[in-house]
Design brief:
- The protein is α+β, with helices and mostly antiparallel strands.
- The protein contains six helices and nine strands, in the order ββαααββββαβαββα.
- The chain has one domain: Gcn5-related N-acetyltransferase (GNAT) (Aminopeptidase), CATH 3.40.630.
- It has helices at 15-23, 25-32, 48-58, 109-124, 139-148, 166-175; strands spanning 3-4, 8-12, 68-72, 77-83, 93-95, 97-100, 129-134, 151-156, 159-165.
- The chain has a five-stranded antiparallel beta sheet, covered by helices on one side.
- The longest helix is centred in the middle third of the chain and has 16 residues, at 109-124.
- The protein starts with a strand and ends with a helix.
Length: 176
Amino acid sequence: MHVRSSRLVWIPLTARLIRLALNDRAEFARTLEATVPADWPGNDFAPILPLLLNGLERDPQPEVWDGAIMLEGQEPVLIGSMGLKGGPDDEGTVDIGYDIVPAYQNHGYATEMACALVDWAFERGDVQKVIADCLPDNQGSIRVLQKLGMQEIGLEGGLLRWSLTKQQWHVIEKQS
């Protein structure tokens, strides 16, 4: 399963891909048929890879939510990671997170893929709300979340918390 936008493709990470990313970057790049920048995964996503691998080894057929990479371009390059952190909870809430390679920040990629991924999530029927957290001084993430139409709902544990309901998303879609 892949989610596509005009410039990007979102590819879920499998156990095999994660093992390659951790142990054989050259084969990882060949398997993806993409360039993998030296600074991927970043400091935020690197510690997540072993956790994702552990989960995939326990359940090799999970539903796609957590770990995915984004590729850009005709000659694809891995530009970052994005996921919905475990899928919907009992209330239908998912938590979106992303990490963009520094050289590809400020090109609208996070906003573009987040829009496509939020749209995909709401189309499923079991997702009613998307939330996100970011540091109060992370202006790049704040801009992405604002462009998605998310509403800032307050400071929690030193992080700004954001929210977007399915109903709000449908209003935003009609306006664009």
